[in-house]
Structure to design on (417 residues):
């Protein structure tokens, strides 16, 4: 009785014989040369990059050699690719190419490799039962090997990209910190290294997330920083992560920007915004870079303690920031100047706001317009304010306005219990 054929075993035996011939010289060099030429045609960026061709030549030659020497005996995932194959991924990353170019290289390798296997199989195998088994088996083996090789090369590419990004971020952080420490720096060289014009107006921003579930919002905050820069007519901003939930930002503009435009952005219009922002006062040059950032940090401290409007400009809280080092003294000032107006609750807060707007505007009519209420409403509230204050509203205007601004900025923590 005739024994059934083991076509799979026969197919593997053919591939072993074929691979033995391909891994020998000069066949290996000839095949790898055709693959390199095909890659150069499919990816002209590589073909014209003289610095990259040596890495490509070694990676393809060693990778093809590893496939044909190990392929007949190993599963696709177990083939031990040489380090030179991974080096191609790192080289492409160092040269600034996109990962899609690396993937294109491996698709070309698969196309040329399959053409070599299929052509030889069709020429050498005349058995109609064996040929489809060989082709099916080798297509599966080759495609799985290329897929695994591509994954390893991509990992090497991404590792190199992360290493470079970390190195760039480290250099950027060191230079920024040197400027903030008032160390002498070469402005021209620093401008080039940071990619940020240090000669023009500098505006320091602090952007942070309010979402406690967001461990790393750096990408979100950087996207917002770019949106703010666009709104203010600034180029791409200089950014520096300060933890996973805060971003330091610098804008460079030829003229002083109108920072009020920031609060008009859609992201800051929500009742409960996802992020908050503090901004320093724009100033010129390296000194402006440092001082505006320091002011943004001071505005951030005021905002973080009191949770006021989503956008806090240092210009609006400058006086409070200078005074806030002694909260106890501020509380005494508030009690002395406000008297019965230093009460907790919405009613007293409304009266304090009316009094502050009245002092700022200088008349009942302008205060009513600013508050969006009738003039008689302002008159009635001011009469209430007069009854609660320890002195007439028009006396001691400066300390009274300071006290009102302190409460507006720092909240009820400066009011008596």
């Amino acid at each position: 009785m005739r024994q059934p054929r083991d076509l799979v075993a026969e197919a593997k035996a053919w591939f072993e014989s074929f691979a033995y011939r391909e891994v020998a010289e000069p066949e290996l060099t000839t095949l790898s040369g055709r693959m390199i030429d095909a890659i150069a045609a499919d990816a002209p960026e590589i073909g014209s990059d003289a610095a990259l061709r040596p890495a490509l030549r070694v990676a393809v030659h060693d990778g093809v050699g590893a496939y044909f020497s190990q392929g007949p005996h190993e599963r696709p995932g177990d083939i031990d690719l040489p380090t030179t194959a991974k080096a191609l991924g790192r080289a492409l990353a160092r040269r600034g190419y996109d990962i899609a170019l690396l993937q294109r290289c491996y698709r070309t390798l698969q196309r040329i490799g399959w053409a070599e296997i299929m052509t030889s199989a069709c020429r050498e195998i005349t058995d109609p039962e064996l040929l489809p088994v060989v082709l099916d088996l080798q297509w599966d083996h080759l495609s799985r090997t290329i897929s695994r090789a591509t994954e390893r090369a991509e990992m090497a590419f991404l590792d190199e990209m992360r290493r470079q990004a970390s190195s760039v971020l480290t250099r950027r952080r060191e230079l920024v910190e040197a400027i903030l420490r008032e160390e002498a720096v070469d402005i021209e060289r620093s401008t080039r290294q940071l990619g940020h014009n240090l000669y023009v107006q500098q505006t320091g921003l602090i952007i942070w997330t309010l979402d406690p579930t967001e461990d790393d919002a750096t990408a979100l905050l950087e996207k917002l920083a770019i949106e703010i820069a666009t709104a203010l007519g600034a180029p791409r901003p200089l950014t520096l992560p300060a933890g996973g939930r805060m971003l330091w930002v610098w804008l460079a503009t030829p003229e002083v920007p109108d920072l009020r435009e920031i609060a008009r952005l859609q992201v800051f219009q929500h009742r409960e915004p996802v992020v908050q922002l503090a901004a320093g006062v724009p100033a010129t040059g390296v000194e402006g870079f440092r001082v505006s950032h320091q002011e943004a940090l001071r505005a951030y401290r005021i905002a973080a303690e009191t949770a006021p409007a989503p956008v806090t400009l240092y210009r609006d809280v400058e006086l409070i920031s200078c005074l806030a080092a002694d909260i106890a003294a501020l509380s005494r000032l508030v009690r002395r100047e406000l008297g019965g107006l230093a009460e907790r609750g919405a009613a007293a807060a409304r009266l304090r706001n009316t009094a502050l707007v009245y002092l700022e505007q200088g008349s009942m009519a302008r205060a009513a317009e600013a508050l969006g209420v009738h003039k008689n409403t302002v008159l009635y509230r001011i009469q209430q304010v007069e009854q609660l204050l320890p002195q007439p509203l028009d006396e001691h205007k400066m300390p009274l306005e300071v006290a009102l601004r302190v409460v507006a900025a720092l909240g009820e923590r400066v009011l008596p219990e």
